Amino acid sequence: MREGNVAGQFRKSVFFWATLLYADAAGAQNVMRRPLQKNRKGSCSSPVVCYHFPFRAMITIVDYKAGNLTSVRLAFEKLGERAVVTGDPEAVRGAERVVFPGVGAASSAMATLRRTGLEEALSEAARRGVPFLGICLGAQIILERSEEDGGTMGLGLLPGTARRFGFFDPRIKVPHMGWNAVRPCRAHPLFAGIPENSEFYFVHSYYPDPSAENLRLAVTEYAGFEFASAIGRGSLAAVQFHPEKSGRVGLRLLANFARWDGGC
Amino acid sequence: MLTRRIIPCLDVRNRRVTKGVRFQGNVDLGDPVEMAARYSAEGCDELVFYDITASAEHRPIDLAMVAEVARTISIPFAVGGGVSSLADMERVLLAGAEKVSVNSHAVLNPALVREGAAAFGRQCIVLGMDPVKAEDRTRFPSGYEVTIRGFRTRTGLDALEWARRAADLGAGEIVVNSVDADGTRGGFEHTITRLVAEGVSVPVVASGGAGHPDHLVAVFREAHADAAIVAGILHTGEWTLAAIKERLREAGIPVRRVW
Questions:
Q1: pLDDT in tens, B10-56
Q2: Of A7, A148, B26, B242, which residue is most buried, by most CB within 10 angstroms?
Q3: Looking at the partner chain, which of B123, B256, B259 has a beta carbon nearest the beta carbon of A36?
Q4: Considering CB atoms only, which of A170, A179, A195 is closest to B256?
Q5: 3-class secondary-structure state, position B210
Q6: Strands B144-148, B153-158: parallel, antiparallel or unpaired by DSSP?
Q7: Is residue A64's pLDDT more than 60?
Q8: Cβ–Cβ under 8 Å, residues A35 and A3
Q9: What is the pLDDT, as a whole number, of residue B258?
Q10: Cβ separation of B75 and A247 shorter than 8 Å?
Q11: What is the DSSP string of chain A?
Q12: A vs B: CB pairs below 8 A
């Protein structure tokens, strides 16, 4: 009787771990299975090392009440990645991999980051060199300052300013909303396997303007104006578009981030 | 270059997609989650779900369906139907929708648009409007009057006036759904779509009347719409998204490629 229970427990436990392993591999392979293009430069060559369940770093999605994080969390779930949404500065400080999303106004976002102690925690995580991905507002407030709300100080993780689109033609819509082509300026692990000029989903009125040319990872053209749609240096990268809402190419970028060691 | 968006519209009733001409004679078309997955894989740029009878029957939106769609697809989608409060908006957005669409309740309570934009960001708030041709040019300078409750009630509001006001209040996008063209598959209504597209600073989506890819070419070229909603043209299987996009590309209209 007792033995039967132990055997049952053991079988259940084996089943549990097998399921987790399978779900992890299957989820990750959904995107990786069909390569987007032949050249997989920068991608991991050994799926066993890449996808073995217990050794994948946890992804920490920073919650600072700047918009809805549901789709970011769901995107990593679809990839079979382990991701946690948290606003706890201690968790962010010790994170192995940071995603810094956000939509909305820069000034209220920065006020929240200061009040909660997340500003320090994010700077510390970035300093430690853990892979760091800013998304949308996250790509703007990692800069030194933003033109939003009459001038707002940013986190200063990269030199530069977030500027407002200044079109003279009132027929040009701001926000820039919809799918637009992203052209990488150089090879970067985040864009591995993603065809050049793939369209990603944008919705924003401000854009990142880093102070050095080599901080631009990718550019996008809107109404004749070219802006940096991805920026970064070292283990820090940020995209103005929303990879979590950009279909297969977006999931591929997030999968690339989940496997990125922070080098480039 | 920013591409023009093609947005399939799924009218959902009791968890089934239906389609009819001017809300008459609805037929069952399939499961909303399956259809969303299929259109997404085929390359639609966004999706919109209307819980078409929610408003008339005072039924809440099917949040379980919204959550399932969010778990299934990775492109933006909007949800509408009887959204009347900030709490309604929050539930829809937290279930995973990118945008929430307001229509009748925005007319009855314009503060809803302002408060929604302040709470969730204007990119989340879509104003749907159902204009109908109006003869009285003194009352309706644009020549169109706004109707609500699925075209059942006239409001006395001029369509262009209302679109401008809604954009000022914080609507991040405006869907112009023509009652005269809806479900006819005879082409979009260009006049009011163009007036709104040129009259507001936010993106404008043309809706109602798509029956052939050339109708989309025309509404993008002549009415300057930023996006177009399609329904019957896809649901009947007569045209695929790939074929529609191919036709647009040939006509020189930028559309998103799918890998």
A1: 999 888 998 765 555 678 899 999 999 999 999 999 999 998 766 66
A2: A148
A3: B259
A4: A179
A5: coil
A6: antiparallel
A7: yes
A8: no
A9: 85
A10: yes
A11: -HHHHHHHHHHHHHHHHHHHHHHHHHHHHHHHSS-SSS--TTS-S-HHHHH-GGGSPPEEEE-SSSS--HHHHHHHHHTT--EEEE--HHHHHT-SSEEE---S-HHHHHHHHHHHTHHHHHHHHHHTT--EEEETHHHHHTEEEESGGG-EE---SEEEEEEE---S-TTS-SSEEEEEEEEESS--GGGTTPPTTEEEEEEESEEEEESSGGGEEEEEEETTEEEEEEEEETTEEEESS-GGGSHHHHHHHHHHHHH--S--
A12: 96
Helix/strand/coil percentages in chain B, nearest 5: 35, 25, 35
* Bond into B32 cis (ω within 30): no
CB A109 within 8 A of CB A102: yes
Based on the residue annotation, tell me whether A185 is a catalytic residue of this protein: no
Instruction: Compute the distance between CA of residue B114 and CA of residue B109 in angstroms, rounded to an integer.
Output: 10
Give the mutation candidate from A34, A72, A177, A198 for the B interface (greatest B CB count, under 10 A): A177
Q: Which chain A residues have a beta carbon less than 8 Å from that of B40?
A: 247
d(CA A17, CA A29): 18
Catalytic, A136? Answer: yes
Q: Is B51 helix (H, G, I), strand (E, B) or coil?
A: strand
The predicted-structure confidence for B202-229, as pLDDT tens digits, reads as follows 999 999 999 999 999 999 999 999 999 9
B187 and A CB contact within 8 Å: no
Domains (range + CATH), chain B: 5-250 (3.20.20.70)
DSSP B131-197: EEE-S-TTT-TTSEEEEETTTTEEEEEEHHHHHHHHHHHT-SEEEEE-TTTTTT-S---HHHHHHHH
Cβ partners under 8 Å of residue A22, min gap 6: none
Give me the phi and psi of A10, to 5 degrees please: -60, -45
Q: Give B228's DSSP letter.
A: E
Catalytic residue chosen out of the listed positions B45, B51, B62, B130: B130
Q: For residue A158, give the nearest of A225, A250, A96, A235 by alpha carbon.
A: A235
DSSP state letters, B62-108: -HHHHHHHHHH--S-EEEESS--SHHHHHHHHHTT-SEEEE-HHHHH
What's the pLDDT at A104?
84
* Beta pairing partners, A181: A199
B11 noted as active-site residue? yes
Residue B211, Cα to own-chain centre: how many angstroms? 16
| Euclidean distance between CA atoms A124 and A194, whole angstroms | 31
Q: How many CB atoms lie within 10 A of CB B231?
A: 25
Catalytic residue among B11, B45, B51, B182: B11
B118 contacts chain A (CB < 8 A): no
A247–B201 C-beta distance less than 8 A: no
